[in-house]
User: Which sequence fits this backbone?
């Protein structure tokens, strides 16, 4: 693979663009809004800081024209929040060829399934592989205009839809990211979304502190208290129960967080979300949201744990803590997340039972 189109120039997109350029690939960076790429376009690239070194990376194509970005690309890397997935699927549908490889970093909840369904809905080719990671490969932030700082490049789960194509997709990316772990299905990656597991409880239980201080505290290091950890632990029990009932192989949250390089071996041995958050060195300096209208709720609820709820209905498992978090977030945000978030219909799973679910995930909708 020599040329990659990166779609989205936020934190994840800029980190990937700079890092992939450093690794010798030709990157074509697209962003929907011209004003958001004005500085990096003027500079001709992105300054990379953090664990990957401190140097400027020149990006040959920085554009708000999606056709220009896609020209000659062998991989279409989607680096936007999940809320933009449908827009991009609609834009990509008439431009992709059979056999195209689309990669969502991250997929969030049900991302590969929803993106694949949207491509079909908007007339895209049938033979497209949509792959995803369980969370963003990079722990990173844009720390000043034109500069992205990376604190960690983690080990994350990777899978594809249809699952029968995962080996080919994995072969493209694993040489670049040796910590990637191949998973059987895109529901394994959906349920391994650590943001969905830990952010909603952290935000909702720290709501007063966030609103009173404008987020003037460290979200993980100070906001990740024993009480927050206890709620995450119970949410984790429900997540594992749903996965088990669906015939999937659950990995504990603390194991996934450790694989990501985000916590300690002690946390894995304790099995405690509180210890995992307390010991998260890469996350220790990350500030809390300055408002409740932040992606830790507006994305990690509808595109994170709402899919958990709907998949639980297929599994026949009750999820009272997950449901309570969704209900509270819906009140706070004045949005019915159960219906506006990622439903079974949006994932293309309406009418799929737990008895034919694994076959559908492997073979795709044409099986």
Assistant:
């Amino acid at each position: 693979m020599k040329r990659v189109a990166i779609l989205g120039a936020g934190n994840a997109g800029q980190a990937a663009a700079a890092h992939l350029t450093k690794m010798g690939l030709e990157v074509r960076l697209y962003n929907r809004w011209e004003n958001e790429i004005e500085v990096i376009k003027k500079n001709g690239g992105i300054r990379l800081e953090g664990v990957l070194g401190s140097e400027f990376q020149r990006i040959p194509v920085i554009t708000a024209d999606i056709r220009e970005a896609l020209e000659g690309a062998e991989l279409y890397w989607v680096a936007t929040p999940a809320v933009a997935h449908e827009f991009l699927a609609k834009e990509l549908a008439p431009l992709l060829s059979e056999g195209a490889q689309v990669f969502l970093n991250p997929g969030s909840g049900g991302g590969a399934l929803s993106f694949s369904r949207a491509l079909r809905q908007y007339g895209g080719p049938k033979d497209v592989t949509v792959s995803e990671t369980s969370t963003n490969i990079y722990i990173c932030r844009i720390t000043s205009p034109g500069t992205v700082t990376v604190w960690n490049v983690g080990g994350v789960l990777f899978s594809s839809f249809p699952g029968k194509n995962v080996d080919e997709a994995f072969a493209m990316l694993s040489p670049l990211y040796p910590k990637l772990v191949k998973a059987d299905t895109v529901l394994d990656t959906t349920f391994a979304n650590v943001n969905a597991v830990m952010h909603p409880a952290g935000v909702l239980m720290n709501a007063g502190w966030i609103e009173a201080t404008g987020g003037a505290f460290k979200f993980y290091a100070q906001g990740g208290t024993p009480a927050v950890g206890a709620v995450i632990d119970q949410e984790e029990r429900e997540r594992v129960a749903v996965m088990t009932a669906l015939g999937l192989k659950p990995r504990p949250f603390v194991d996934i967080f450790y694989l990501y390089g985000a916590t300690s071996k002690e946390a894995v041995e304790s099995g405690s979300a509180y210890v995992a958050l307390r010991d998260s060195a890469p996350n220790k300096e990350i500030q809390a949201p300055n408002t409740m209208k932040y992606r830790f709720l507006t994305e990690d609820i509808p595109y994170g744990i709402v899919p958990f709820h709907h998949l639980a209905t297929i599994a026949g498992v009750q999820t009272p803590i997950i449901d309570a978090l969704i209900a509270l977030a819906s009140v706070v945000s004045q949005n019915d997340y159960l219906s506006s978030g990622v439903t079974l219909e949006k994932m293309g799973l309406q009418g799929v039972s737990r008895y034919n679910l694994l076959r559908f995930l492997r073979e795709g909708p044409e099986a």
User: Anything to note?
Assistant: The domain at 3-184 is CATH 3.40.50.720 (Rossmann fold). The chain has two domains: 3-184, 193-335. The chain is about 45% helix and 15% strand.
